[in-house]
Specification:
The complex is a heterodimer of chains A (229) and B (293). Chain A is α/β, with parallel strands linked by helices and 229 residues long. Chain A has 8 helices and 10 strands. Classes of the chains: A alpha/beta (229), B alpha+beta (293).
Amino acid sequence: MADFVIDMRNVTVELDNRIILDDLDFSLKSTDFCYLIGTTGAGKSSFLKLLYRDLLPRYGDVQVGTFNVPRLKEKEVPMLRRSLGIVFQDFQLLPDRTVYENVAFALEVTGNKRSFIKKRVLECLALVGLSHKHANMPGDLSGGEQQRVVIARALANEPRIMLADEPTGNLDPEASRSIIQLLEQINNRGMAILLVTHNYDLVKSFPHRTLKLKNGKIYELSEQEIKDL
Amino acid sequence: MSAFYVVKEGIAGFKRARFAAFSSITAIALSLLLLAVLARVSFNAYELADSIRADVQVEIYLQDIDENRKNSIRQSLLEYSIVQEVEFVSREQAMEIFRADFGVESELLGNVNFLPASFKVITTPEARASEIQELVSEVRSYRGVEEVTFNQRGLELLEERLRVLIIVGILLGAFIGLIAMILVYNTIRLTIYSKKDLIKAMKLVGATNSFIKRPFMFEGVLQGLIASGVAILGMWALFQYVIPRYLPQAGVISWPFGEWYFLTGALIVLGLIMGYFSSRLAAKKFIRETGIS
């Protein structure tokens, strides 16, 4: 068996009696950087929700790392999520906490010691290039910087996979490019990246494996199809 | 889990929703204070009723009967479980009591003794009016018994009032307690809603539901504890200063079981229980519904 960190087989998802994902297969290797594109409502977010168990499939298997996601008991779900780094378009930062505290809390909730938390937070902030802003409040940062803090928080628990849902959706082109470059760096350090986006310019500028969701099915685009986006 | 984190977050939540926290603390404190007053008054009423019950006497007036019959009646009386003591009052002793009670006016009767001999029966404090009534009916049919008297109406009235007092007290206390718990529940719910982004972020990084819940429960317990403190201060002020000064005739109301710490301890425990359970319930329900599942 290949080194898959995500393996989905015959997955069907229904929402409000409508089929969102229809009998699809998908797998992601530990070294993959993969884009997931599709029009609004194509089911991209539902696809990600399946992986962090915010949604259950009607049929099919979803394997994430060692977790058989649909069969997880409720108390095992946090363990699954600790193995994932999740990044959203709308940052999800806590506005009343400093940059340091925003990253630290990912480690606090998983019960780490304070000395370890301090060391790890500084490492993550250094990785995203924000060590010098650790005492700032999120409101003092630009959109790109806020997204870097979210990425630092997602990295804190050393996940094997990062799920990013439109991470550049609220950013200007320059900030968007720097975020993709940062994610590529993270990918090079051995973390699988699954990035949902509808920013085709970025997909073309930083080409990687690209999948498209359409009518509930998933298609892998060829290099030419990527260029033609 | 770090206790420091739970305390820090619990206190922060408290500060964020100050008004809601203030209203639930006030509600718990008021309900605890009312329960304390009810408990103290009910306890005293119960003790008073007990002492009145202990004084209940059944008087059995006898015809002219011989010693054997008297002994036989005494034995029969002592067989009742509600009979604590049977005292024989001879005609002469009855006359002496009469003279002592009526003084010079009793001299008008000269040496005429019209009073019958009697048994004075003292019942146990636990004896109910209905049981005493049953004893009286049976004794009335004894051979050699002229008449039997006891203050049945007074005892029944006392029992009835006491029963009403206890039922009203319990219902009122439970009702106010319930309102207080609903207020705490709502406060915690508001706090949870105000922190829904935090909860969502916590879930995304793998926090367990119990981890997320604990600061909210700590907040509820803290509210209960503060409310207990307020209620205890209110109770002391009421019974040590307000009542003695403005209602001195009620100043005899004592601490339940004679010591201050029983009621004080009960208020602390009750406050903690109310805070804990209402916040736990709210946290369990609303954390599940907030953000991602």
